[in-house]
Amino acid sequence: MAEKFVLATHNPGKLKEMRAILSGIGLEVVSPGELGITVDVEETGTTFAENAMLKAKAICEAAGLPAIADDSGLCVDALNGGPGVYSARYGGEGLDDRGRYLLLLENMRGQTTRAAHFTCSIACAFPNGDTLTAEGRCDGAIAFAPMGDGGFGYNPVFLVPEKGKTFAQMTLEERAAISHRGRALAAFAEKLETYFKK
Length: 198
Hints:
Elements: E1 4-7, H1 12-23, E2 28-30, H2 48-63, E3 67-76, E4 82-83, H3 97-108, E5 115-125, E6 131-142, E7 158-160, E8 165-166, H4 172-178, H5 180-197
Helix pairs in contact: 4-5
């Protein structure tokens, strides 16, 4: 079942993580860049699921191949669920990953409630118009300072209490086993296998 899918992301960290999980179920995954596709999809959805589907459909249309997209973000209880769907744009244009998580720590100063979770929505669009979706969630807390240098995004400040580590202190395999993206991709893999059996 070495089907070829386009992964609707230009984020190298996300590409590496998703490729590692999806290759485990026999999928060949290529990036839009590898196909010479430079579609920039505006994320106008109000939920992770809507944004993921917008990206999957746009890339599927451009590539003529099944496309998998994810939209994920960090939801912090003390910030009323923020940054949420704006996680990648938190603090505005000029910030990189480090700038965003430092801003988050600044905004969390003095907060005793550190509970947070990562949410991931996966969407897959097929050229025939079929779609599949899956969700994943990982609960944790916001650390008081960044720790570790693995992964990307908010990983250095997202603490998983039962592991006693941030996402950035875990190996790719450890993270994939418990992360929101790992869980969403596992649920997606099951749906995909069922879809292919039809």
